[in-house]
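Retry 2 of 3 after timeout on previous attempt. Resubmitting structure tokens to design endpoint.
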């Protein structure tokens, strides 16, 4: 099967493509914008994330030229569109992608939450969501957790008495970074051995190396804003693989989707300091949560099992 992934949001497409290639499929990854977290894309246009209206025609010309070239050359069976199409209202789905193959729209977040399903996305052969909250916006979609390949990294034993609490926000607002920093300021005054590690604008490999030095990771802090996801991100899973306990906000309506024991500590702006204090004081608690988290990610985010689910969906769309 020949598969083209468009965009590499949070390395989801890259992780999925690795397993698909191992299973013998021909897979290409097409990245449009500059992306410091993206790894090993086959084609990257490196277009700036911010641009003016006068840049739009030239921008669309570059995208169209490269997309048409690779599509005509490779003749893909599946177009796996991460966060749907490229052009306004995803009009490129019915006008372009559907003419050359089957279309899978894979929603990842704010585009669907903020704008809802677009006109073009309704022409997809199948829709997938990466987090269960997105089912509210696309009820007929299928939830498949993100594939997380085993990175083989473990927490670094530093041989000191420090407790390092890490936070790596891709967006400070959505991750509740304001409340994390507020809690850390208070904790550092009360616990001299506590350090805060804020990781931002770093390549993925460097982020992973810094995470290894942490004793606790805070993915997100809930502050009851409807724009927040209320679910864990890839960062949580990467920390779980290292055996590091991770704090994030799981909003009440999504708790039934969380298979326990997950090793995840559910935090909001109201209880973050208390939850972190419990972890700071109790090394056994940190270790137990770390073990539970590692088992959780091995089971729920097993890349071989999840990749097979995607391939089954691909085959169904081809047979339609």
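Retry 2 succeeded. Sequence:
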């Amino acid at each position: 099967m020949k598969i083209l992934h468009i965009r590499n949001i949070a390395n989801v497409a890259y992780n999925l493509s690795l397993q698909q290639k191992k299973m013998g499929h021909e897979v290409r990854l097409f990245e449009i914008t500059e992306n410091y977290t993206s790894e090993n894309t086959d084609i990257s246009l490196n277009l700036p994330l911010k641009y003016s209206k006068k840049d739009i025609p030239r921008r669309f010309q570059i995208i169209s030229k490269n997309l048409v070239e690779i599509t005509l050359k490779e003749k893909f069976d599946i177009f796996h569109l991460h966060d749907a199409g490229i052009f306004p209202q995803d009009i490129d789905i019915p006008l372009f992608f559907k003419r050359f193959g089957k279309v899978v729209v894979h929603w990842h977040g704010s585009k669907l939450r903020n704008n809802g399903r677009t006109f073009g996305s309704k022409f997809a052969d199948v829709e997938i969501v990466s987090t269960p909250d997105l089912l509210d916006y696309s009820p007929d979609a299928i939830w498949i957790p993100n594939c997380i390949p085993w990175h083989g990294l473990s927490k670094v034993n530093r041989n000191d008495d420090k407790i390092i609490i890490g936070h790596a926000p891709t967006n400070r607002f959505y991750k509740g970074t304001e409340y994390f920093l507020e809690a850390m300021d208070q904790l550092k005054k009360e616990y001299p051995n506590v350090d805060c590690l804020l990781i931002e604008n770093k390549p993925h490999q460097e982020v992973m190396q810094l995470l290894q030095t942490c004793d606790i990771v805070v993915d997100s802090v809930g502050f009851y804003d409807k724009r927040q996801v209320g679910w864990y991100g890839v960062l949580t899973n990467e920390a779980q693989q290292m055996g590091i306990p991770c704090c994030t906000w799981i909003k009440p309506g999504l708790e039934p989707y969380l298979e326990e024991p997950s090793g995840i500590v559910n935090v909001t702006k109201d209880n973050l300091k208390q939850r972190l204090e419990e972890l700071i004081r109790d090394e056994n608690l940190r270790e137990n949560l770390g073990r539970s988290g590692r088992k959780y990610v091995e089971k729920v985010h097993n890349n071989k099992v999840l990749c097979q689910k995607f391939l089954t969906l691909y085959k169904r769309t081809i047979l339609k």
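Attempt log closed. The CA atoms of residues 94 and 317 lie 15 Å apart.
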